[in-house]
Structure formats: structure tokens, C-alpha cells
């Protein structure tokens, strides 16, 4: 992903100076980090499952928790898309 400051500037909007866009980009970064953490945890869990009988008993619980985290991330992404859509509509109305 390129530098966030290089995102849509073609309509007279400088994202570096727009607080709303900056907050949105920060949220995007946070969601990306959370998704990365979830993937890394799943990989580590998968490796640990090979070596531990206890993990095989706890595996359904871990999968349930992981599924909850995935759904939370998906929900956050949907909210972000909705906010971006609203923001873009406002910007169009303001002539940016």
C-alpha cells in the first residue's frame, strides 16, 4: 500500500490537512494491523496444534474466538466504507 498522503487528491483535497480523512486513514491502519495480528495468531496456533494435545481440546474454542474477531474486523471495515461513502458525498456537495 502506498503512502496514505498519496490517496485521492485530484479534487482539490489535501488529505494531510483534512482531519476527517486523517482519522479515517488512521482507522484503516488500525484495522489492517488488527487483521495482521489475527492472521499471525492463527499461524502460531496452527503451528502449536501440531505439538500439543491440549490445543486439540481447546481448538473449537480458539476457532470460535477467531471467528468472532474476524466478524468484528469485517464489521469495522463495513463501518469504514460507510463513513468513506458519506465523506465522499459530503465532499462532492461542498464542491471538493
From TrEMBL:
<comment type="similarity">
    <text>Belongs to the disease resistance NB-LRR family.</text>
</comment>
<dbReference type="GO" id="GO:0006952">
    <property type="term" value="P:defense response"/>
</dbReference>
<keyword id="KW-0433">Leucine-rich repeat</keyword>
<dbReference type="GO" id="GO:0000166">
    <property type="term" value="F:nucleotide binding"/>
</dbReference>
<dbReference type="InterPro" id="IPR041118">
    <property type="entry name" value="Rx_N"/>
</dbReference>
<keyword id="KW-0677">Repeat</keyword>
<dbReference type="Pfam" id="PF18052">
    <property type="entry name" value="Rx_N"/>
</dbReference>
<feature type="domain" description="Disease resistance N-terminal">
    <location>
        <begin position="16"/>
        <end position="50"/>
    </location>
</feature>
<keyword id="KW-0611">Plant defense</keyword>
<keyword id="KW-0547">Nucleotide-binding</keyword>
<protein>
    <submittedName>
        <fullName>Os12g0510500 protein</fullName>
    </submittedName>
</protein>
Amino acid at each position: 500500500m502506498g503512502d496514505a498522503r498519496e490517496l485521492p487528491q485530484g479534487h482539490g483535497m489535501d488529505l494531510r490537512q483534512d482531519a476527517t480523512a486523517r482519522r479515517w486513514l488512521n482507522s484503516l491502519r488500525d484495522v489492517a494491523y488488527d487483521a495482521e495480528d489475527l492472521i499471525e495468531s492463527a499461524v502460531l496456533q496452527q503451528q502449536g496444534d501440531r505439538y500439543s494435545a491440549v490445543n486439540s481440546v481447546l481448538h473449537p474454542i480458539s476457532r470460535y474466538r477467531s471467528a468472532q474477531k474476524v466478524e468484528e474486523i469485517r464489521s469495522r471495515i463495513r463501518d469504514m466504507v460507510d463513513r468513506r461513502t458519506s465523506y465522499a458525498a459530503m465532499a462532492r456537495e461542498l464542491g471538493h
